[in-house]
Design a protein that fits this description.
Layout lengths: L6 H34 L7 H9 L1 H19 L9 E8 L2 E7 L6 E5 L1 E5 L4 E7 L4 E4 L7 E3 L5 E5 L5 E7 L12 E6 L1 H12 L8 H12 L29 E2 L4 E2 L2 H14 L13 H12 L3
Helix pairs in contact: 1-2, 1-3, 5-7, 6-7
The structure holds dinuclear copper ion.
Length: 302
């Protein structure tokens, strides 16, 4: 919140500072009047109405009215980026985020999870909905929160002005693992974004090493593909994160573990320890070799 990277977040930050300064001024002003009143009490019986009318009422009324006028006017000026926008759909699911892009070449849908990549300096419209209960998207550096409500689509238009990675959270209690529902917004230069999107539109790379090939086989045998899609290898139902390019994302497990070889095996075996109640069962019965093979397969999905 203190390092805004969109014009709307800049405005929100400025209002936060002005309203805080105003509140502190009222507090100090009233406390000074109280101190003066207490000190003068014994010397002569002052008419309390003088203090009430002179300061205790007039001062807060003046300051609060000024702040009300300021915040109303400034709130109306919140800049919503105009023009054609990149549309990205984000759906809240217990307890992760599905992120969908459209490939501008083929028009096909590209599914990803838990990471929203946006181009710097271009308007982006996030279409927000939910697959189950009410969630709320809050990426403090980008501005205000917006609820994700089942059965409707809310919109958040942003234009990120600086490249970087901005962490967000789910800001509405949505069940057991509400606290472990992080989201990362990765803002990159516009041409880098276009290249990235083209790469994401490609199907998964077939595994090359023996371990990764074995991992792919296990992926089917263990029925991982009943929930997780890997486009080109296992086109499956869509009730779990799409893993087509999972290794190109910064984190796995909705922000829980950095994407690296060890994390995959750790996650698969210990998911119910790391994130109790998650919809995926723990595969802690697998031997080391199988876990390593699965990790090799997933780590190759760049
Ligand atoms: Cu989703 Cu809290």
């Amino acid at each position: 919140m203190l390092q805004p990277v969109t014009p709307a977040a800049d405005t929100t930050y400025e209002m936060t500072v002005v309203l805080t300064v105003g509140a502190v001024a009222i507090f100090i002003g009233v406390m000074v009047l109280v101190a003066v009143a207490v000190m003068h009490r014994r010397r002569r019986p002052a008419n309390p109405w003088i203090w009430v009318a002179g300061g205790g009422v007039a001062f807060p009324v003046v300051v609060l009215s000024a702040l009300l006028a300021y915040s109303t006017a400034r709130g109306l000026q919140l800049q919503i980026p105009a023009g054609e926008a990149v549309v990205i759909e984000v759906s809240g699911v217990q307890w992760w985020w599905e992120v969908r892009y459209r490939d501008p070449v083929s028009g096909r849908e590209i599914r990803s999870a838990n990471e929203v990549r946006v181009p710097v300096g271009r308007a982006v419209t996030l279409g927000l909905t939910s697959a189950d209960v009410i969630h709320s998207l809050w990426v403090p550096a980008l501005g205000g929160k917006v609820d994700l409500v089942p059965g409707r689509v809310n919109h958040l238009r942003v234009e990120v002005t600086q490249p970087g990675v901005y962490r967000g959270v789910c800001a509405e209690f949505c069940g057991d693992q509400h606290a472990k529902m992080a989201l990362h917004v990765v803002a990159v230069a516009a041409d880098e974004f276009d290249g990235w999107l083209a790469a994401q539109a490609e199907p998964a790379v077939a595994p090359r090493s023996a371990a990764a090939k074995h991992g792919q086989q296990l992926f089917t045998e263990l029925r991982c593909n009943a929930c997780h899609a890997v486009r080109g290898i296992a086109d499956a139902p869509r009730n779990a994160p799409d893993l087509t390019h999972v290794a190109s994302r910064r984190y796995i497990g909705t922000g829980e573990l950095p994407t690296q070889h060890d994390s995959f095996a750790h996650w698969i075996a210990n998911i119910q320890h790391i994130k109790p109640g998650a919809r995926m069962p723990a595969f802690d019965h697998l031997d080391r070799e199988s876990l390593t093979a699965l990790a090799a397969f997933l780590d190759g999905l760049k």
